[in-house]
User: Fold Peptidoglycan-binding protein from Candidatus Faecalibacterium faecigallinarum.
Amino acid sequence: MAKPAYYAASGSGSTGPDTALIQTWLNGSRDPCTHFDPVQVDGLFGPDTVKAVQEFQLRNDLKADGKVGPLTWNALHTKYAAANNGSEQYPGIAMKSGQEGAAVKSAQQQLNVKGASLTADGRFGSKTAGAVRRFQKANSLPADGVIGPTTWAALYR
Assistant:
């Protein structure tokens, strides 16, 4: 799994695919000594996610501020990749127009590998939605312009 090059600081109140990816990585890097319950992967950085991030930070010698900046982002990625065969991970929520972040950038990069000509800037705009629809049509998927689990799986095989 390639470490996302696009970082957006995330913390209480953040929403979207990056928050869902953080939640997915928190759940996927749990071990028998983890005290926090698995967090709901909903893309909403609420109190349970803050607590889980703080525990992760404490256990990994990071400042336990409950925010995910570059150091925590890298540590989460490293722990998750080590525990989960290193494959690119679906962020846990459907991605659509108006969203942005590392998960969107990863999908844009993969769309480019599959023949699109997008600027991989992490912003899911009309050009990305169009590229997704074209990819979906070419792969006999419902062409709704949304990257859900089925489209993600097709992009990364």
In short: The mean pLDDT is 91.
